[in-house]
Amino acid sequence: MLTVALPDLSQTARLGQALARALRPGDQVVLRGDLGCGKTTLAGAVIQALGAPGPVKSPTYTLIEEYELGDLRVVHADLYRLRVPAELEMLGWRDYQDGRTLMLVEWPERAPGILRADVDVWLTVTDDERQAHLQGISPRGGEVVDSLRP
Questions:
Q1: What is the DSSP letter of 57?
Q2: Residue 148 has what DSSP assignment?
Q3: Which end of the chain is less crowded, N or C, counting CB atoms within 10 A of the terminal residue's CB?
């Protein structure tokens, strides 16, 4: 596991940029943590670093936002409002499992047994600090996390 201090938004942006450089099409990243801990901010930093023009929209109400960035499709999903895991099928979840789509998924615990993760990111906030804890779940995820080590 790799722990990264996130004392301010610029550090979160730097982590997002580093993740963007390390991730490839087909990778799946899950983002965990309490409400307001920075999951959407980090996902947005990754998407911006990959070349999204303009601001990155939060998928809180739409559940899924897609970004076509050249040959790469990025899907940012926020499953907080998911009522039942089967809803993912209605949203075309299988279509995103095509090997060219990079997945960033907030609240993965709302869809147990459905999601495959390469990298698990836990964001924590205490009174005096904010941190990201990154763990490679698959061999590919291990490569991503190792590439972020100083």
A1: P
A2: T
A3: C
3-state helix, strand, coil in the chain (%, to 5): 30, 30, 40
Half-sphere exposure of 109 (CA within 13 A, CB side): 6
Strand ordering across the sheet containing 28-32: 2-5, 130-136, 119-125, 28-32, 101-106, 72-78, 64-69
The pair phi, psi for residue 17, each rounded to 5°, is -65, -45
Alpha carbon 72 to its chain centroid, in Å, reads: 15
**32 CB neighbour count, 10 Å cutoff:** 18
- Which structure tokens are listed for 28? 């799946």
Instruction: Return the residue matching tokens 């459905």.
Output: 114
Q: What is the pLDDT of residue 20?
A: 97
Which domains, ranges and CATH numbers included, belong to the chain? 2-147 (3.40.50.300)
φ/ψ (deg, to 5) at 87: -60, -25
